[in-house]
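Page header: ASSEMBLY MODEL / two components / 762 residues total.
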Amino acid sequence: MIVVRPVQAGDQPGIEKLIFESEAPISSLPTDRDWLGRRIEQSVQSFRHNGELEGTERFIFVLYDEDHHEVLGTAGLSTVAGAEVPFYNYRLDEIIHASKAHGVYNPVQILSLAHDLSNATLLSSFTLATRMRLSEYRDLLSRARLLYMYHCRHRFQRRCIVEIQGVAVNDGRYPGTSPFWENVGRHFFDIDFMEADQHVATLGKTFIAELMPATPLYLPLLHEEARAVIGLPHEQAAANMRFLQSQGFELSQYVDIFDAGPVLEAPTERLVKGQQVVSKQVRLSAGASRSGSGGAAMGAAFIAMNGDLTNFRAALVHMTEGLGDVQRIRKQDADALGLAENDTIFYSRIKPGQAAYELS
Amino acid sequence: MLIRPIQMDDLDEMVELATAAGIGVTSLPSDRARLLQRIATSVDSFAGKRSHADADYLFALQDADKQHMLGVCGVKASVGLDEVWYNYRVSQTVTASKEMHLHKRMQTLHLSNDMTGATEICSLLLHPDCRKSARRRPYGSFLSKCRFLFLAAYAEQFDSRVFAEMRGQSDDDGHSPFWEALGEHFFHFEFPQADYLSGTGNKAFIAELMPRHPIYTVFLNEAARDCIAQVHRDTLPALRMLEAEGFRKNNMIDIFDGGPCVEVELASIAAVERTQVATLRELATVRPYLELPATDAAETAVMVAPDPSAIRALDLPFAMADFRVRLTDLATLDAMTGAEGDKAAHDGLFDMLLSAELQAAAASISLHWLDMPLLMTRLKPVLNSRHGIQLDRNTHLEQVDD
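Prediction written out in full:
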């Protein structure tokens, strides 16, 4: 059975393996061992709802194969993007240089260093094992965060954002470099994109951001290679971006300061309502003892949850939705979710064809 | 050769001169109406009808024999008071982090109004015939330097900071790499067009369409970066001349072509330091030293300095409009010094022979001159024979060194 659950300390080796496999750099999941350990511990404390962390929780969910004891993916959710330090982006603005008397009307785009997304709720750290990408498990892992927010909406901010990795080009080294970095960041740091990314992992993105020019960059002055990739996703991230858009996210006017990848945003309310969560009472189905996959394939696909904020569980469940207040599910599904007869089950439908976003 | 305030009937020759100058002399576009306006402003300024904020003086270099205008030069009492004055200030911005072992110096351009209120020397134009002729080349320097005599004579009318904007680099077709890499992105005109608009009173308007946030020059191409604070090759001699007078680049550049701004304290201009001013009335006190005949006032006089401490107390009763500087031409020079073909002597004498033409009544005459030790050794016999002036060489050498 594959479930989404809070990360545990023992997941660290599995996460490191995942990051190593990743084709696009995940700057919010550091490869540095100690750092990752601290991130995991922070998540553990956040799920325990330790009072000291209130308002600054950072949750990490893992997609976990309980049969093979394997971490298949990670997904992060931070109550606020800039909990301890400001969260920096470039904001793409347009200023008008105009004079009616002289017949001049000249809109000029500028990138301004901004940290006004600091108080938004942030989705981050999304990784998924390559073999799972074309499956509904991607929906499960990604949406688990939105569904978790459904359960404790008040803990999260009005606005929700997610950063999408920007365009990279192959420079013969893994994972390539960013045309935006080469024409912007490199001028200020004289280091490779990968190296910069490592500094982000160890020193923090804010640290680097605060070394960037505090004054706006004029787009017309940037090299066309840099201009061409502003707000565009990495090809490996394009499908994920479209998936998030299907969940209610929209392109914002913000981009990443390193690779100019887009930032998506949405009102948290819209994301949560869009999940159309239904809650019912559990009835273990008669077919629960039946073995084999024949029974598992019955009915439509749902993401089901136990609604437990500390021991949160979500899984893909195939079932037939009833009309009453009760919902029949198989025993192994209930076990995986930590649910027993008469407990409340929460579920949300997976729209048919949604996983096809992966096929692009 | 005569330097005199420009007059209304100089307009035709002025248009001709401006047309011959080409692109890049921003302050003098070959626009007849605009030139007429500038001449009128100058006439008013010399007549004392203009406030400090918009006084603008133009001088004509006139060929005494042919009655032709060979050049023009100008002084603006203060810039940026009637219309906002913009430059880019070339600055350094450092990116540094001990943790990353990073210390990176970056050149940045900041839009600035720092020159506001300063006195500008500008609009120096010499007829191409004068530029080409080796024999006439010193006229450019003469034309430029006469302004320093003027500044020295009427220092209280000017700011203590004096500057000049030097023409920046552009090719023969008028393409400016700096403009194309920067200004053109914000103001979709080619450089000659922008330059013309600028000269016709639209400079502040254009500046206000330019980027207001600092520009990191790494984002400009190499050709544009190479233009920063560099002069057009035709302007190099003018830059050298101003440098010799004490002007230095001050990290301000033109927002259009990136040409440098050079600046100096008025009192530190070499020609100003060497200039002494006195009325004839006051000169009566030094007349015994100079043995200057009292009746000789109507002629050109070449003077050596009286006691500098006395000079500071003098005032200038002269109307500005009567300001004249006469340059003795080379033939006369040869005749006077007997130094025919001696180029070094000629170059030195150009500095010395800038002198005031004495026109008015003896009681209100102003004299302006530059003194040098050489003057006495060379001109002593001339002054003696022509003007009956006896120079006591030892006395005056000491004063010169003061």
